[in-house]
Amino acid sequence: MTTFAPGTFTPSPGRGSLPRMLFVHARTEAMLTLRNGEQILLTVIIPLALLVALSLMSVIPMPEPRVGSATARIFALAIISSAFTGQAIALGFDRRYGVLKRLSASALPRWLLVAGRVCGALVVVALQIALLAVTALFLGWRFPLSGLPWVVLLIVLGTLTFGALGVLLGGSLRADVVLALANIIWFVLLMVGGVALSVPVGFVHLLPSAALAQALETSVVHGTAPGVGPVAVLVAWGVVAGAVATRTTRLT
């Protein structure tokens, strides 16, 4: 039998490297989100409109400096929109149309399917935050640079936490149910979950939305480290949601 030296034929068939597969999968997930008109409305247009409204209109009471407080809260909303609502809906419909089942039969490991979605969500969130930050600067926001490391950390932590919650919802229910529930939960978190409004009810501070908004406000407005309480709430929600999602997520 004739054998050939490695590298004789180009391209060489076989599974690609894990970093390369992760990069391609994350890029694909991010591009699919950015090309979806409904997702753009949810992740870009609505947060931008709310940022301008909350910054310029005094109908909703908000701590001073008003633009800084509004920016922190809309940062939180942007993370919730992409990592939770967008991911849950996308996962639900990927399951309906058999996308996950086909991807699981490819060379992509199961963990990389999840990691690629999370990395794709991080890319979308980073673009959202950049666009919102530029808009806030034009509205008069003065960002204390001492808070930059904390803001980056909270963006990553918030994306992971709400991404786990999105996988939990989108991986266990029917696509049409996921579509309805994800949008209802997004609206409830916006109005009474401690994002747009500061609701004076004790249990609200135990919600991941209120914890993220509060932690971001500390870093965005004052440039200081977030409190241990909000960070602990985010970590707890993320760990529990991730553990439950690994048991309940179905491919179809």
TrEMBL record:
Signal peptide: none annotated. Coiled coil: none annotated. Keywords: Membrane, Transmembrane, Transmembrane helix. It comes from the Bacteria. The chain crosses the membrane at residues 40-60, 72-93, 114-141, 147-170, 177-207, 227-246. It is a multi-pass membrane protein. InterPro entries: ABC2_TM, Nod_factor_ABC_transporter. It is found in: Membrane. Residues 27-199 form the ABC-2 type transporter transmembrane domain. This is ABC transporter permease. It comes from Lentzea kristufekii.
